[in-house]
Design goal:
With 344 residues, the chain is of the alpha+beta class. The chain has twelve helices and twelve strands. The chain is globular.
Length: 344
């Protein structure tokens, strides 16, 4: 036993005491994410949460922020990526009608930077509070030699629940259904490897340069927070029957819609019904990226796509507008061999 804080482990790159101090400082923020189902104290070996009951199904998902973290590193801002992570996971389970219960995060780095760690935790806690989701635990790991100096990885797991009678599976999709899109805030958390190459390498832009046609810098546009669609979709589920919901993430429109579409039906997406955001138009033009590839890699300005019956389309739009959303009818379902067809 020694009183020397410069232990052999600390000299090798892992300071346990410093890490525990960071977690102690974050505890107050994390405690504010507790919800009615929270059980037990934070900081145990496992997080505890009250089961919602036998009439519910649990829905879980794990995801990361990807190379958007590289942009956060370039800009020197790290609070938004925590929000990105939580909101992305919330939307993933929302695609099956589930609302979040609790969240767990993983932060891995060569060595934890106290300032960066505090920003990431603040973003995670903000999004958890906004989505009424308890942050019950996670893992913070220092691994010298594995991660590049000054950088980190961020991953999260969410668990939610949905009443069995409200489960969204896509089985109810039929010919004649209408596709309603809700706007994204930007790239959300997908396509950053291509975006960074085009913007910073091919076009030679800097994060502080203005994105043409906007008053935002490239850094601001690229770090725009991934939206959570929980609140408007929750309202909509009380008003109409949602046949399917696609979260437009990696794989764009084709791969994400194809996940649930019944065989023999084709989702026709009319690209002429909305205008892609400036950041997408810049990437396509500056990188000479094929248009079809853009719609496979990026969300192009549509964050989720809702499938509803034709008779419910007007009520869907009205309900969503009442929540402050700007819904757009972007297509329809017809019989056909191709699962997804892009027109316009």
């Amino acid at each position: 036993m020694t009183n020397d804080k410069s232990t052999a482990y600390a000299r090798s790159g892992v300071d346990i005491d410093a890490k525990m101090e960071l977690l102690r400082k974050a505890k107050q923020q994390i405690q504010k994410t507790r919800t009615a189902g929270s059980a037990g104290a934070w900081g145990l070996f496992g997080g505890l949460f009250q089961s919602p009951g036998k009439d519910h199904l649990l829905v879980s998902s794990t995801d990361g922020v990807g190379t958007k973290l590289k942009v956060a590193h370039l800009v020197g801002r790290h609070d938004t990526v925590g929000q990105d992570l939580v909101n992305h996971c919330v939307n993933d389970i929302l695609a099956q009608g589930a609302e979040p219960l609790f969240f767990l995060d993983y932060i891995g780095a060569q060595q934890l930077d106290p300032g960066v760690f505090a920003q990431v935790i603040a973003g995670l806690c903000q999004a958890c509070r906004e989505n009424h989701c308890a942050l019950v635990g996670g893992e913070t790991a220092e691994m010298p030699g594995l991660y590049p100096a000054g950088e980190y990885d961020l991953v999260g797991t969410i668990v939610g629940a949905v009443p069995k009678q409200r489960l969204i599976t896509g089985a109810g999709v039929k010919a004649g259904d209408i596709l309603i899109g809700l706007p994204s805030s930007g790239l959300h958390t997908n396509g950053y490897s291509l975006a960074r190459r085009v913007i910073f390498e091919t076009a030679g832009k800097k994060v502080a340069d203005l994105l043409p046609g906007t008053k935002k810098t490239f850094g601001e546009a690229l770090l725009a927070v991934h939206r959570s669609y929980l609140k408007p979709v929750r309202k909509l589920m009380d008003a109409v029957k949602i046949h399917a919901l696609a979260h437009i993430t990696g794989g764009g429109f084709t791969d994400n819609i194809d996940r649930f579409l019944p065989k023999g039906l084709c989702a026709v997406v009319d690209r002429a019904t909305w205008t892609p955001l400036p950041i997408f138009r810049f990437i396509q033009a500056a990188g000479h990226v094929d248009r079809d590839e853009m719609y496979k890699v990026f969300n192009m300005g549509i964050g989720i796509v809702l499938f509803v019956g034709r008779a419910d389309a007007e009520r869907t739009v009205k309900t969503l507008r009442a929540t402050g959303e700007i819904p757009v009818a972007i297509g329809f379902v017809e019989k056909g061999p191709a699962p997804v067809r892009l027109i316009g």
